[in-house]
């Protein structure tokens, strides 16, 4: 299955960021020559160190372990049972509040969904929005929106390609939330927007004392070793990441669960999340 022309125009090599060309069922980097398979219309654009099997970097090994635990959690949780149905109702309610907070029904232009999963959010988007999803384990459907297999820390898209970026319950599963934000800023157009839906934890007394004593530090703290998450984030962590990079950052809270919504608008020139 070929890659849509408009999607191919957005894609770059995750290793060297050179444009890709299409040849049959593969994409080829115009600079380093690396070839990428296209499976069921989804380009496989993981960076080389992740595509080869067990990553050599311990940080990526931690991420890979958490990803396996996330898949197991999904298998146990989304099983169609009564508890699964209850979770689904909560998720739908939270997502509806997120859509309203970020005014996604009025979104226009080219949109990137980082950590897209099955791209459920597309049902809430307006008709003038062109959607692209990226996920290390995308869940495409026949005739569904275009998706790419990749990771947030090495987004396989050209610079300033998107008007709007979404992350829904994604940043705490990333190997590096600051690294993912830096990549989001690279692919976001000047003046573009980022909308975040995120489960947050309350900071413990050690974190609160540390901020008072040292001031802001690197956002987040490691999740427990048996968690499907990589990093635990709270609201100050999100603000530390986003406020330097955007002219306006508006935070809302869900009426159910420990979720927050952040609409960050007006990407600054040279803005960085690191």
What is the helical fraction, as a range of percent?
A: 25-40%
Number of strands: 13
CATH arch. level architecture: 3-Layer(aba) Sandwich
CATH-assigned fold name: Rossmann fold
Number of domains: 1
Helix-strand sequence: HEEEEHHHEEEEHEHEEHEE
Query: Which structural category do the helix and sheet elements fall into?
Result: alpha/beta
Largest sheet: 7 strands, mixed
The first-level CATH class is given as Alpha Beta
The percentage of residues in β strands lies in 25-35%
Please work out how many helical segments DSSP would assign. Answer: 7
Distance between the termini: 38 Å
Overall, the morphology is globular
Task: Characterise this structure.
The protein is of the alpha/beta class. The protein has one domain (57-267): Vaccinia Virus protein VP39 (Rossmann fold). Helices cover 29% and strands 26% of the residues. The protein is built from 7 helices and 13 strands. The protein has helices at residues 5-10, 48-51, 58-77, 82-102, 177-187, 205-214, 235-242; strands at 20-23, 26-29, 35-39, 42-43, 109-114, 129-135, 147-149, 162-168, 188-199, 221-222, 231-232, 246-253, 259-267. A 7-stranded mixed sheet has the order 7-6-5-8-9-13-12, sandwiched between helices. A 4-stranded antiparallel sheet has the order 1-2-3-4, with no helix packed on it. Strand 3 (35-39) and strand 4 (42-43) form a beta hairpin. It is globular and about 50 Å long. The relative contact order is 0.13. The mean pLDDT is 90.
């Amino acid at each position: 299955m070929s890659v849509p022309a408009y999607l191919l125009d957005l894609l770059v090599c995750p290793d060297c960021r050179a444009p890709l060309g299409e040849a049959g069922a593969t994409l080829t980097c115009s600079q380093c020559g690396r070839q990428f398979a296209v499976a069921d219309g989804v380009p496989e654009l993981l960076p080389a160190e992740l595509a080869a099997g067990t990553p050599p970097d311990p940080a990526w090994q931690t991420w890979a372990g958490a990803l396996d635990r996330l898949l197991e959690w999904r298998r146990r949780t989304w099983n169609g049972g009564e508890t699964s149905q209850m979770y689904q109702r909560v998720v739908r309610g939270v997502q509806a509040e997120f859509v309203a907070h970020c005014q996604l029904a009025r979104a226009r232009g080219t949109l990137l969904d980082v950590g897209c999963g099955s791209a459920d959010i597309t049902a809430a988007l307006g008709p003038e929005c062109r959607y692209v999803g990226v996920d290390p384990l995308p869940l495409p459907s026949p005739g569904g929106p275009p998706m790419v297999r990749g990771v947030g820390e090495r987004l396989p898209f050209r610079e300033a390609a998107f008007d709007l970026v979404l992350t829904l319950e994604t940043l705490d599963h990333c190997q590096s939330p600051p690294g993912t934000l830096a990549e989001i800023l690279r692919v976001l157009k000047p003046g573009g927007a980022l909308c975040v839906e995120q489960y947050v934890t309350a900071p413990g007394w050690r974190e609160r004392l540390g901020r008072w004593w040292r001031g802001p530090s690197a956002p987040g703290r490691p999740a427990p070793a048996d968690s499907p998450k990589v990093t635990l984030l709270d609201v100050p962590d999100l603000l530390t990441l986003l406020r330097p990079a955007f002219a306006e950052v508006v935070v809302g809270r869900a009426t159910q669960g420990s979720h927050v919504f952040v609409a960050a608008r007006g990407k600054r020139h040279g803005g960085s999340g690191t």
